[in-house]
Amino acid sequence: MQKKMQVVQTLLDTLPFIRKFAGKIIVVKYGGAAQVNPDLKQKFAQDIVLMHLVGIKPVVVHGGGPKITQLLADLKIPTEFVDGQRVTTKEAMHIAEMVLSGEVNKEIVSLLNDHGSKAIGISGKDAHFIQARAKDRSKWGYTGIIEEVQPEVVINLIKEDFIPVIAPIAASKDPGEPGFNINADLAASRIAIALKADKVVFMTDTPGVLDAEKKLIGTLGSEKIELLKNEGVISGGMVPKVDACLEAIRGGVGKAHIIDGRIEHSILLEIFTSEGIGTQIVH
Question: Which domains are assigned to the chain?
Answer without folding.
Answer: 14-281 (3.40.1160.10)
